[in-house]
Design goal:
Length: 95
């Protein structure tokens, strides 16, 4: 992980950031947890980046669906969130 994202330094103590929420973390695992969080997904909904109701349908679908989110970085997370949301909205029984 540190080869791809860098290690915390004096110049950049929080190298793992979410560009949509404008927050950053010292550890990649904390960013990954944030990308699956209610606050992050609700922010994506309010910004119109994912369909309204995405968080609600993810909650109804169970934790295994939310675990399919890609948490490598913010951009890939958004792409996977869109894909999962569209598949759930198009086929709600697809959990």
């Amino acid at each position: 992980m540190t080869q791809a994202f860098g290690i915390p330094t004096i110049d950049n103590p929080r190298p793992y950031g979410c560009s949509e929420c404008d927050v950053a973390f010292r550890k990649h695992g904390h960013l990954a947890k944030h990308l699956r969080s209610k606050s992050h997904i609700m922010k994506m909904e309010s910004n119109g980046l994912v369909p309204a109701g995405t968080y609600a349908i993810l909650e109804k679908s169970g934790p295994e669906v939310k675990d399919r989110l890609v948490t490598t970085n913010c951009e890939l997370s958004l792409q996977s969130l869109r894909t999962i949301a569209l598949s759930l909205f198009n086929n709600p029984s697809d959990t």
